[in-house]
## 1
Amino acid sequence: MATQTQIEVVMPQMGVSVSEGTIIKWLKSEGQAVQADEPLLEISTDKVDTEVPCPADGVLDRIVKLEGETIAVGTTIALVATTSAALASPAEPEPEPEPEPESIAIGNGAPTSPEPVGAQPDNAAGRAFVSPVVARIAAEHSVDLERVAGSGNDGRVTKKDILAHIAEANETEASAPDVEGASETVAAAFQPASKVSSAPSGDRLEPMSQMRRSIAEHMRRSLDTAAHATTVFEVDMSRVVAIRTRLKPEFLERHGVRLTYLSFVSRAALEALRNWPWLNAEIRGDEIVTHSYINLCVAVAVDGGKGLVVPAIRNAEGLNLLGMARAIQDVGDRARSKRLAPEDVQGGTFTITNPGGHGSIVGTPIINQPQVAILDTEALVKRPVVVSDDKGVDAISVRPIMNLCLSFDHRLIDGAYAVQFMAEVRDSLESWGEERY
Amino acid sequence: MPEKTYLQAISDGLRQEMRRDERVFVLGEDVGVYGGAFKLTVGFLEEFGPWRVIDTPLSEIAIVGSATGTALMGLRPVAELQFADFISCAWDQVVTVAAKQHYRAGTSVPLVLRLPSGGGFSGGPFHSQSPESSFTHVPGLKVVCPATPHDAKGLLATAIEDPNPVLYFEHKHLYRRIKAEVPDERYTIPFGKARIHRAGGDVTVVTWGAMVYTAAEAAGELSAEGVSVEIVDLRTLQPWDKQAVLESVAKTSKLLILHEDTRTSGFGAEIAAQVVEDAFEHLDAPIRRIAAPDTPIPFSPVLEKAYIPQVEDVAVALRELAAY
């Protein structure tokens, strides 16, 4: 058995397509004893939060990645010492003053010289070598090294010199608390700096939830990535309304499934995607990847509208109306009760969002990367519309109209392609047959 | 508490383990009738009989191979190689078989190799080496290098208890030269826990084995000159106590690494690299290494003295670091 003293904790692969995760919260601190399988930290990948268990008994030796950092899968995020060989080390190195290159001597040219590499005083500035520890202390205490008397080789300022200088300065200022700070202790030296934030009165300050940060990052990245364009179609939902009214009680009683308009729109969209495959695709570098399957993402509002998750229904192309309604209900329920697994929010190929419930009639949704299109179903509104009978006579009729909006990535999808897809969705919904499930 | 030599401490510890656990047995060249090349197992054959004190042919690979096999079958072999130098003959069994067995098959190999190592008495190039660094580079092995009689006994008990192959390097030059109090009762000392041999604040020396005493003598000289030296005795190299080293370096900001093994790729290089990685901003001077030169160990007493780091070499380096 190997006798490693340190075990690396890496960002886990939470499902095949996830490439990175974000650290929400460290549940353990450096130096703390930990046990195998004990939760070490909380991470967020895409929109699912989970805990990372400790790989072994030991001590959390070092936290390599801090809260809020997003890290590629497989990257070391912490070290667990399986023996007592734990050490908390500085999380972030302090910025150091630039060393004076000309003042760093390179020895006497003999590579085997036992002499330590020393400083040489004979440069114009007369400044000598600054060691790492002196550079750090000078930066932490804003000390101008020019003003410190050096007692080391060639007048170099040693650690003792600078500590004495700081202690003396503090004494003259009679600011006792800082004298302590000047003394080098292991504990102080290895503690990461804490973050302090404050808000002006009248404003409430709260940290972004991990979900919020994920959404923020994702939305921004999508707008930075895709060339967004949106097209809006009016759809006469008369037939769908009639069929839904008839099937709804039956679905509920026999299957316990709520039959929503979203199920109809989803079915229509999936059928149309077969003819317009580039809308079920992604751009990967210089290549277009077209999927033979459709993993349909459905946006679900959670946390009273303060959050959003977008679970995917796998192989949705194989679902009939009942299956679709059931699947939508299932992912919605699980999203709201936070029971989604990481794989539930991965691998989506096309997204439908449904903000119409509150009366919205037009939207310009942002594409769910790396997809290239998102379909938005708006409110069903009764409107007076001009209809023509089979003799070509126009009349005004009251019809249930729904606007469907499609945002597409104009890098891949041209307008003509997008609107032909939308026309097919519209025609499919307007001509929904009695026996079509 | 009785005073015991380093050798007596190991001998008593081994006897205690054999009395305590009948799975423990010894094997090696001349360990039985003769009582071992250094007379460490004198009286063992009489007490434990020929099934637990086994004289082997002169073949290190056979010794380590048999020990590995019996360890796999549930025994707790303590194999003695007459000189640590000859572990090279058993490299294949140690590195290919024993070290990897648990990884490959999940079976433990509770094997201890007792390896008399080190120079200082004109043993020449085949009987004086300190090959511990090589084995710290082999995942699956533990490497132990006690410096004191107390540690020698406690670490041997831990080594025998450990389910992994443990290379227990006992320094020959300490055998009868070093004497200290050792408890009669059984005790263990954990692996990976350094011992502060001498506390100080100006310069840190990290070392192990016989060099602990060389460092201590030099530190005594420096103390008279007003320089306070801290000596960290690692005790085990695999695992090794990074925390103790880093804490000492954080305190003194100056580090000298001292070992009897040769310089290039010696374990001192690993320590230096680790300190630079984890404690760069605590350093107030370049890290120094004192080690044997990259040559075989000379037989000539004069040359051997030039080869093995001496008190004066250490004192000079400490003075330079203190003044840096």
Note: The mean pLDDT of chain A is 82.
## 2
Amino acid sequence: MNTSNTSRCRLISVAPDPVRLAEIRRFVEETAAEVALDAEKTFDLKVAVSEACANAVEHSGGNHAPLEVCAFLYSDRIVFKISDGGDFRVPAAHSRSDWSNRGLGLPLMVALMDEVCIAKTRGGGTNVSLSLFL
Amino acid sequence: MIVIDDWSYMRSDMLVSTERLEGSPLVIVSGEIDHGSSGALQTKIDTFLDCGDTVILLDLSDVTYIDSGGISVLLSTVRRLRSDGWLAAVSPNANVRRLLEIVGLKVDHGFRLFDDRETAAAAVQKMAGH
């Protein structure tokens, strides 16, 4: 990733609780407004970040380590990094056939973002980074 | 691994009301359909599915956000209606429409997309053979 140009950073740290997803989307909206991102790209970012966070909340497994969403604003791109204390998991096969249709989150992130990176951390957590070119 | 099956306790910013359009249920949704609010929408749709309705219309004009939580509800409903009916999205905004295209709903024969209620009403009438 090109990080040579100067960046600004905004951070939100919340409990890994599904009720905080709407709050995280407001954070994405505010961040997108800072770089005057258009409505379409803002929508895509909200969906992608929300999906990454929903994943993180789901596999946090009762772990209370905070869910951190960090936005990096570069001259040519905007990057959201979602860090949590759990393993990235593929939704359980048994839950796919029912109403939940789990497992759509990752394909949506890939379809909507220009770059998606999922990395495990040494401490047993997961970092998801989502980039959109400006 | 913990699978959270019950998201119903989550705070939601979604309102649902229902009407009838040419005899078929028209579910009017406004706000955000996410993992928190989708359960309430599914419950509402299920009441019509359980009553045997084969055409269900969703007015999405005032839906500002949808993600995999909401799309899951649409996919499940389409699966149940596909054999003898369809689910329709009526006047979704451009962003919501784009997401429905990405997940392949637009090309599913159990799903229809209408620009407005008038077009939807005409299709329901045609389906009923009037």
Note: Residues 95-100 of chain A have pLDDT under 50 and may be disordered.
